[in-house]
């Protein structure tokens, strides 16, 4: 598992007090919301059996991914930091969730995403405010988060397995625990904020 915002790291299989997880979810519930209802739900997976069952599709995808081939395939340009991260993370998409003491699956109320107008994505935008709060609260507890966004049909497969009502959607799977001290820290891109700020208009 990767640390979310701090560098302190410990073994990912270490015991985590569930009271800490509840505090983290309380922080998630304090996120701003577009409709003031805060009608989010959280499915918590704790056992290996629960995680094996829920994430069989993620395991299939991870097992099929050839990281060596992906990282070394010919490219017309130098490999990017994002591609390096993808090549490192994809084979670990299942184990990083299975090794976590807890997996949080946040749910937001929406039958389907409709991006015709930005405002129609309000439920989706709001749940990501919740997720950001969860990451920050986990860091404040000395914990770390791993994250997997459901890929293609994986969303509906997991939703059916966990008997999630049809009116809810799953944005992400979040593993919470202490980070592995042996986990390498991959290089990150650090943008120049002065080049990102535009006053009045784009140009």
Can I get a quick summary?
This is Nitroreductase family protein. With 203 residues, the chain is an alpha+beta fold.
Description:
It is a single chain. This protein has 203 residues and is α+β, with helices and mostly antiparallel strands. It has a domain at 18-64 and 91-185: NADH Oxidase (3-Layer(aba) Sandwich), CATH 3.40.109.10. Helices cover 38% and strands 12% of the residues. Strands 1, 2, 3, 4 and 5 form a five-stranded antiparallel β-sheet that branches. 26% of the residues are buried. InterPro entries: Nitroreductase, Nitroreductase-like, Nitroreductase/BluB. GO terms for molecular function: oxidoreductase activity.
